[in-house]
Amino acid sequence: MTAMELGHQYLDGAYRIGTGGVFDRVNPATGLVAESLDYASLQDVDAAVKAAAAAFPAWSRLTPGERSEHLLKFAVELTAHADHLAAVETAQTGKTVRMSHEFDIPGSIDNVNFFAGAARQLQGLAAGDYAGNSTSMTRREPIGVIGSIAPWNYPLQMAVWKILPAIAAGNTIVLKPSELTPGTSLLFAQIATAAGIPNGVINVVVGSGREVGEALVRHPLVKMSSFTGSTVVGRRIMEMASETGKRVHLELGGKAPLVVFADADLEAAAHGAVAGSTINAGQDCTAATRAYVHSSLFEAFTARVAELMEAMVVGDPLDQDTDMGSLISETHRGKVSSMVQRARDSGARILAGGYAPELPGAFYRPTLITGAAQDSEIVQEEVFGPVLVALPFDTEDEAISLANDSPFGLAASAWTKDVNLVMRAAAEIEAGCVWINEHIPMVSEMPHGGFKSSGFGKDMSSYSFEEYTNIKHVMISHDTAVHRSWQDTVFRQR
Ligand code: NAD
């Protein structure tokens, strides 16, 4: 019996059996039931929050150096478990094991290492004598118990992006991973305990969003709700948090444009578009979804993208030669395939893919669509599958305005060799990240977060500490007089 078989909740440094019922989890690449998960009950959520609250005083009082030392040991321990984590990540998502091994797990470990260093760089403003007769300084303090909710697309990375800045700053956390993909988050918490992170600092509750997620957001001891997921659920979180005026951090959906200007390197742009739209089977909030291509390159670009997509190997995620594994579920594939069908029905052309291959799991071919209208569903709404829509443009103004014509603003890319145009595009595109001649790579040192309906607040980098800390002004008087001169405004010394 593996440790996780003892239960699918992780509270106060140990696995526990959830008392909220038992639910089957399906392996999306085979369509077969993979395991039975026990879900948390409301009492289990309460116990997890109380464990985090009990751990907070001691953890928050550690020096930054002491917390950093814990995180460095944690990163070493995670590295020793990298193969196991990658195998579990693939088994629960259907993504290729190549992707889990080379992208998800190393990216997660790098984030732990980054925050081990950043923990020692938590700064406030230097002290200053702003009122002449007093000294002001700021203290940056942890908030308390953070309730975090994560999606299924990059289960471990999304969990790590929530957990690390929170605990590096001295908070404790209860994480609710997606009920479709709890495995690596549970292992992560267990490895943290093995590495010496004190019990209760990282807790994981598993269950549905409606029950377990909402209970976590509403819990009075949870001081902040940090969420990554869809825009519709993000709005619901905000609504619930408003009942108590709780702080929220929302990383939501995306519909990233990829703008190919007339002078772009066509081959590089086509490769960038294929990798950018099919990474993680397109289930990536920053994936390239709308390619706006200068009309002089449009035919050549779409032909090359279609050719590269058609050559991609879709199938068994455990095969090292596979380029794209399955989508997360049969239901999700149904949503992707209906959106493509509606685009087709409204007159769009499918230049590549547009169908599910004859395989038992939730697979879908990389798909390129042209001839869709800018205001159509396939151009405006998040598909969250391997689907790229290409539209032509003629002028720079038109390209920028098409790119910005979206409720989302998470990420974008511009492809050009013109340095002046690079600077204009970087300034004018409304997105939390603008890549130039690139699409997808991220680094732990740089912030990630959206504009517009893609949310607010930052994951990764030292900017994330702004979400997970309170800034306190401390003012120390130098004045020895009993009655201070400014008090005359209120009452005069008689
Ligand atoms: P989702 O919103 O359906 O679910 C996300 C999480 O919220 C899950 O754990 C789910 O159980 C929980 N949840 C659902 N309803 C809830 C409720 N009422 N109260 C509390 N919790 C609830 O999203 P998903 O389908 O898991 O993930 C895909 C979405 O995530 C896409 O829209 C994608 O763009 C977005 N995403 C955004 C980022 C980013 O950094 N901006 C990163 C990854 C994914």
TrEMBL record:
Pfam families: Aldedh (PF00171). Keywords: Oxidoreductase. PROSITE patterns: ALDEHYDE_DEHYDR_GLU. InterPro entries: Ald_DH/histidinol_DH, Ald_DH_C, Ald_DH_CS_GLU, Ald_DH_N, Aldehyde_DH_dom. GO terms for molecular function: oxidoreductase activity, acting on the aldehyde or oxo group of donors, NAD or NADP as acceptor. It comes from the Bacteria. The keyword Oxidoreductase applies. Residues 22-474 form the Aldehyde dehydrogenase domain. The active site is at residue 251. Belongs to the aldehyde dehydrogenase family. This is Gamma-aminobutyraldehyde dehydrogenase. It comes from Paeniglutamicibacter gangotriensis. The lineage of its organism: Bacteria, Bacillati, Actinomycetota, Actinomycetes, Micrococcales.
